[in-house]
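Sequence design from tokenized structure. All designs in this work follow the same two-part layout: the structure record, then the generated sequence. An example of the structure record is given first.
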């Protein structure tokens, strides 16, 4: 646990659409034998909407949906957020656990500088306001993967707020029109990660790995529907979505489910749901305790903070053993309250009494073991300050790479390409770098380079399901090929033959392939005139069609001549010779 992550919380987005018919799934509860990989993020940044618009049919009322996304993203760092334990994917269970990770008494959190810098950089990239002073809070809840009984987060004053992200949506019949959209970002916060829970339904036990909850991205979607002009509807939260595809499917399904429920006279419950990717539907997990899941307080409540929380076992830093949490134990409540449950993995004194269910909601309080996080900029940096002891916002801003939006604008202005082409270059990993390397080494026009990279090169990659880094054709090889084409050494058809040979990865250069296969353009006009004469004599009917007024017949003759020359002849020269012979 305590793996460094960023959690993005964005503001809900509203859109209007008509009721869309769709399938339904009535199964409730978690799927049998499912495995839960619970990841609690380390920062808060974006609730961005996914939406569909359709014209309503007669008699139908429009519905408006509001969707907010909470995105948990792992920070790329060598150690955890509040301890020196390593962050390493697929390490043996509980092999990267410090005393602090195990919540042993007397251990204190130490903030990871790299994680703070990453959070600031993310905030700057997302046009956020960076708070020069931010605070840490304790988020209290009892669960087996959180041995301390609380999670360190930033609720009251996060590290960055009020950002935005502009993106493009392809529209039109050919998806060639790019419409800009902007999503608002509420806040970014650093947050401690919990452990990983693996629920074994057959043995009725839960296994805990305190290394960290594996996975680099997780999204929680908050969704509600209402009629335009009316109050917002009751929201549901779909938890632990780990891919963009599942996120889109879960949102589409949940919007339709809520519309169907309301139109059939039902009501929407304020609940947490999960998405079953095999069934393609969301299912109820648990009800919310109230409209607000989390509340703030300044003093420690009796139950949560006066009770010591100790894990059943202490993991050894060198072993790879799972901690076993026994089945749940019911604790007696007062006569006027229902029974509540806590895991046996936590020890409660005999006098402990659980309060009303609403009071068991997650609680926040200031983190007493971490001082306020203070950042500086060029104007507020103290004179003579040690650079290793402070974090300079302006210095981090200078290290930001060129952001995608700026890159797309530069490509359009510098090379005259279409906006949708710039999106393709950036969306394929490594493709932009490949394109730019070709541009540096060729004399060909940028538009021709764009066409070859996006059509021919990318087409071959897609056919064989290869990444750009796995391509047998290097940028230098493609640049040399385009130079041969640009200098009219070879024809376009011959260039495609050369590219096909290059794709075989035999180590030959384009020049060598052209020489071996004799693909150079024919420069002997006399020989070409003889070939044209022979083709006309061999196809008298095509010549007759052309003389009778069929203009397309000349294309047939040009194709026949090119075939005879193995595409080595210039089509423009062939057409000129044929027209001269036909007019004589």
């Amino acid at each position: 646990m305590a793996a460094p992550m960023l959690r993005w919380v964005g503001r809900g987005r509203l859109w209007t659409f008509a009721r869309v018919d769709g399938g339904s799934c009535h199964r409730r509860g978690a799927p049998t034998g499912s495995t839960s990989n619970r990841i609690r993020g380390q920062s808060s940044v974006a609730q961005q909407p996914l939406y569909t618009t359709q014209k309503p049919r007669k008699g139908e009322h429009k519905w408006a949906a509001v969707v907010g996304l909470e995105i948990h993203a792992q920070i790329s760092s060598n150690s955890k957020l509040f301890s020196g334990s390593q962050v390493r994917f697929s390490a043996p269970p509980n092999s990267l656990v410090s005393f602090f990770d195990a919540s042993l008494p007397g251990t204190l959190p130490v903030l990871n500088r790299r994680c703070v810098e990453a959070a600031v950089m993310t905030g700057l990239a997302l046009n956020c306001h960076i708070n020069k002073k931010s605070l840490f809070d304790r988020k209290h809840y009892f669960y087996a993967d959180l041995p301390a009984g609380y999670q360190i987060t930033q609720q009251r004053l996060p590290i960055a707020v009020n950002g935005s992200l502009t993106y493009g949506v392809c529209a039109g019949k050919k998806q060639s029109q790019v419409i800009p959209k902007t999503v608002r970002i509420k806040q970014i916060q650093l947050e401690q990660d919990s452990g990983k829970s693996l629920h074994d339904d057959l043995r009725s036990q839960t296994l805990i790995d305190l290394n960290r909850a594996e996975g680099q991205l997780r999204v929680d979607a908050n969704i509600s529907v209402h009629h335009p002009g009316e109050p917002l509807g009751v929201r549901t939260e779909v938890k632990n979505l780990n891919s963009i595809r599942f996120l889109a499917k879960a949102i589409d399904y949940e919007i339709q489910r809520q519309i169907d429920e309301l139109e059939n006279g039902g009501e929407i419950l304020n609940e947490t749901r999960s998405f079953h990717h095999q069934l393609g539907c969301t299912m109820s997990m648990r009800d919310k305790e109230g409209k607000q899941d989390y509340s703030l307080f300044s003093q420690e409540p009796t139950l949560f903070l006066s009770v010591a929380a100790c894990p059943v076992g202490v993991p050894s830093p060198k072993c790879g053993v799972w901690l076993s949490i026994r089945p749940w134990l019911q604790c007696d409540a007062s006569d006027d309250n229902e029974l509540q449950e806590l895991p046996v993995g936590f020890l409660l004194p005999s006098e402990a009494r659980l309060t009303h269910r609403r009071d068991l909601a997650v609680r926040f309080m200031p983190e007493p073991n971490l001082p306020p996080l203070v950042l500086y900029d060029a104007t507020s940096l103290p004179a003579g300050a040690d650079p290793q002891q402070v974090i300079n916002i302006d210095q981090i801003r200078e290290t930001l790479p060129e952001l995608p939006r700026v890159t797309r604008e530069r490509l359009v202005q510098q090379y005259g390409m279409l906006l949708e082409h710039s999106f393709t270059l950036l969306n394929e990993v490594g493709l932009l770098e490949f394109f730019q390397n070709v541009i540096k080494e060729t004399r060909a026009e940028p538009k021709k380079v764009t066409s070859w990279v996006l059509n021919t090169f990318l087409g071959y990659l897609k056919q064989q399901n290869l990444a750009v880094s796995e391509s047998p054709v290097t940028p230098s090889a493609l640049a040399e090929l385009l130079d041969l084409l640009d200098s009219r050494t070879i024809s376009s058809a011959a260039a495609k033959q050369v590219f096909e040979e290059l794709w075989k990865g035999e180590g030959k250069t384009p020049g060598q392939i052209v020489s071996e296969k004799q693909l150079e353009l024919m420069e002997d006009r006399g020989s070409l005139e003889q070939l044209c004469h022979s083709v006309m004599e061999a196809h008298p009917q095509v010549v007759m069609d052309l003389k009778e007024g069929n203009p397309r017949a000349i294309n047939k003759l040009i194709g026949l001549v090119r075939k005879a020359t193995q595409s080595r002849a210039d089509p423009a020269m062939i057409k000129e010779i044929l027209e001269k012979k036909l007019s004589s």
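The longest strand covers residues 177-191. We note this feature because it recurs in several other targets discussed in the main text.
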